User: What shape does this take?
Amino acid sequence: MQFFDITLKAQYSWNRHPATLIWALLILAAPALAQFRTVEQPSSFGTADLKNIRQGYVIPQLVYGEGAAWDAWSSSFLEPSGEEPAPPEWTGDEDSDMEEASYYSSEVADWNTMYSARSLTDGDTASGWSEGVAGNGIGEVVIARVPDNKNIGIMNGFQRSASLYAKNARPRRVRVWLMAAESMDFGQFDDLYYNVKALASLETELADRQGWQPLPLPSANAPPTRAPGFDPADLTVKWFVAIQILSVYPGSAWQDTCISEIGTLP
Ligand SMILES: [Ca+2]
Assistant: This one.
């Protein structure tokens, strides 16, 4: 887990430099410091195997977190564009530098994942997922966590502006999978979902227009998602939707197929 990095580093340096023992103990003792971590950056920009999604396909773990966590949520995503956030000015004060380093790694992770599945459920219609392969991404898959298995909608294409909507490609025919998590856990920073299984699918054609449109979902049943500390009677199913692109409305400028949001229809 990433949030143990700092503690491990402190222990490591204690072995080599006993004088830093006090520093290590401070970290372990102070809850305020425990929130600093270095976010791991995405490296693969997707998990190509998701293209093999089929009935019964299981994703062992999905983490609703930052940075590299988003590699698991789509078969590919586009690498970031624009300028990478500038590093902070280091003060030499360990306390504030550690805090700055933590914020900075988070900022860079957000930048690196601007086109990841994170942008599908960030409530921002100006951000979106984009596939990251050559061509229009036929066969690419992206997953969104959804609050329910009904009344779900999609904002097709990159909806930051009418111009960007037209320039980028929009999914046309798609296969829609309904998925559910077997169990989950609450991390210090992230929600973790285990054994997210593809239950059922249907094929549909999305409209080529801006704004929300209904996303038809197949019907499927799943047992409630187990979660620690919850009365079994209070458990609900944690649902996910996977979209596989079968065809697109081509973009006028780029072969990047985008989706801006997936969530409850407003
Ligand atoms: Ca968005």
About this structure: The longest helix spans residues 94-112. Residues 1-33 have pLDDT under 50 and may be disordered. The radius of gyration is 21 Å. The CA atoms of residues 171 and 248 lie 4 Å apart.
